[in-house]
Amino acid sequence: MSATSASAVAVLRAAPDPRLAAALRALAGTVGALALAALLFGAFLVAAGHDPLAVYALLWKGAFGSAFAWQNTLLRAAPLMLTALCVVLPARAGLIVIGGEGAVLMGGLAAAALGVHLGGLGGMALLPMALAGALAGGVWIGLVGLLRERRGVNEAIGSLLLAYIAAALFKHLVEGPLRDPASLNKPSTPALPDAARLGELAGSGVHAGLVIGVLACVLAHLLIHHTPWGFGLKVAGGNPRAGRMVGLPVGRLAIAACGLGGAAAGLAGMIEVAAVHGAANSALAAGYGYAGILVAFVARQQPLAILPTALLVGGVAASGGLLQRRLGLPDATVNVLQGFLFLSILVAEPLFQAVAQRIRRRRPR
Amino acid sequence: MAALELEVVDLGKRFGDFVALQGVSTKVAAGSFHALLGENGAGKSTLVKCIVGYQMPDEGAILVDRREREIRHPADADALGLGMVYQHFTLAPGLSVLENLVLARPRLPAVLDWAAERARLEAFLDTAPLHVPLDAPVATLAAGQKQKAEILKQLYLDRRFLILDEPTSVLTPQEADEVLGLLHGLTRAGRLSVLMISHKFREVEAFCDEVTVLRRGRYVGRGGVAELGRERMAALMMGSEALPEPPARAARVPGVTRLRVADLAVHDDKGVAAVAGMGFDVRAGEIVGLAGVSGNGQRELVEALLGQRAVAAGVLEVDGAAYRGSRAEIDRAGLASLPEEPLKNACVPQMSVADNLALRSFDRPPQTRLGWLRRGTIRARGRELIAAFQVRTPGPDAPIAALSGGNVQRAVLARELAQPRALLIVANPVFGLDFASAAAIHQRLMAARNAGAAVLLVSEDLDEILALADRVLVISGGRIVHETTPAAADRHTLGRHMAAH
User: Fold this and answer.
1) What is the pLDDT of residues A102-151, one digit of tens each?
2) Does the ipTM exceed 0.90?
3) CATH fold label, B6-238
4) B488 touches chain A (CB under 8 A)
5) In which domain, by residue range, is A363 found?
6) Does B346 touch chain A (CB under 8 A)?
7) Could you tell me if A191 and A179 lie in one domain?
8) Cβ-Cβ contacts under 8 Å, B58 against chain A
9) CA distance, residue B347 to nearest chain A CA (Å)
10) Where would one find coiled-coil regions in this protein (chain A) (predicted)?
11) Do B359 and A246 touch (CB under 8 A)?
């Protein structure tokens, strides 16, 4: 460990470009955190009486080992990309939004409620559904931003509590006014007409939502890093005082970032409904909104880094079934790994900084 | 309890490649009042931090009463009787003086016997040379009393060598004289030795016996205050640098009113009125100096003028129209600003120097074309400004937080004043800068005024205001209490108005 960190430091020192050095430093921190999580999870497996190497091999197989595994992983990665944006965009404005799950539910519900009536539109039915999903999610998280800017409600708490409200509202509507009377043991909204279903990408077994997720991340990257709006958002989030001094509408920027993030999560809900479930029901509350937080933090709030990270986290989730079948590990095992991942990422940053500082201090004159 | 003698021998300290101190030797005799002079970055802070254990010197020795001591930690300095009073107050404002003094004791029992503590403290106060009401919450004390309480705390903790870091910057001239006079008395009585960092020659001449002067981390001289005299002290501080010319004031009649403030009320962070019933005008072609002791509403006023703080009530107008500080309004007004604490108020610390230099211009051509941010242009423009204003930075891509305070200030200056501006709002613009940089900023402000800009200069440095302003306003308790001109002003009257509330 010390040898690798020493050589990493040597690389950092030699790097001529500070931006490259910063990128390398960030990458080193992330890789270190992933290694730490793997170690901790390994220890957990040993304690539970399993061979960690065998589990990791199986985990790899379940995530990326076959065409079917890839299919499974990609299906899970698609909504994660969008829910991660619901964390990343507000984070640019300095806000920590952790209630993307609420936007997923609201977006899915809105899309399902609208989609039922759009059978006659043919292929065009998906567009209004997507807009409805994005709008519902955007309003939901936009409300978080509004509460924060106008009433001083902490956005982390506000978004989390609103996610509970969304879940309750969702349950009420799906089991009550919007329920399909035919859905007996699993209350659902009426099944979507075929025109309102999102198809798969030519023969891949993966639905078109993946393209939407990738596209959204690329667009978010361009928006954040290559438009004056993104620059202003960064200023407002980095130091609101400086932002106000140069005349930026700091509060409105933050609300807009929340709205955009919520729209992405709402779109994730629409995609799940239109491509996977075919109606809005409790299966929509699969925790994509919460897993998106993990993805965003591992990706260090960078939209393009979401892409590989969503694959990783999607893959871990995809392998859960295989672990259960082959090793008899409980379904929640992969959640433990996710938990370790999250903790390590949170710990790694300050830890890495402290180590770097110590090395710098010991540096000979 | 006798005063301590302190000597440093060949002290050296480096931060990476930066030499903060090298071969510094000096001695503070027991019972003397010693001044430590030097420009910013001369190493004064590093030296005193080494003495009180916040930093370890890389080389050299510290002798206390002629015995070499290793001071690795502030607790070591405490044990030796070395103490420090900071520029800003370190007492808990919500607690009483009594509680603050008790809590300052290094070892407290798990359960406090307040009656016993009070008795102890009262016994101590009977012998103390200064008095502060014990049961008043610190927040209700005037600045001078707070500073006295800080000193009382040091005496209560049996400190026999006291370091003062610009102790009078938050005091009126009268309060400063009282506090320093008191300390002077304690040194004469042989109870204390004092080492004071100061920028104010007036105070050094009035109270100090000897001075040590540092320049760029090195010892450049020491001697009796009376023998050296003000000119020689200044010359030692600045070295061979030529004294900059005072800015030339062009004779001109002020033009139209640019900035108008009337009945303005602004609240502080707790929602308490920090500014109330404030009113003044700033006209084109004049510098209006706003003098006052720190904490009398200046910060909140400036924040309100810059759009960083909501206006609770009243009128804030630029060119006769209500002003809210949007980008369009800023543009129309030609407003620029040098707020105090530039890293906190005017920069985004984790963003690059080039990006920070673009905060005013990023959304217009050539930085932005057709909605596309041109990062190459921002970087190139950053490079130009860095060169033109001699900002010392590893490069345009380095985060601005990595720069020294003076260079952050220079970067903000570059951004704000690279092109001519018509309305300037400036707060303590040279705080912490060396003579040459300070003079350069003063030249620019005067040049802007001569060219017809309206300038509001908020400063706690009376000298700065008297040198630059066309009109002087005194702020106290969140309102304007006095108006005069530099020619008609006398320090004593100004000091009285500054203290009045």
Assistant:
1) 999 999 999 999 999 988 887 788 999 999 999 999 999 999 999 999 99
2) no
3) Rossmann fold (3.40.50)
4) no
5) 1-50+329-365
6) yes
7) yes
8) 365
9) 6
10) none
11) yes
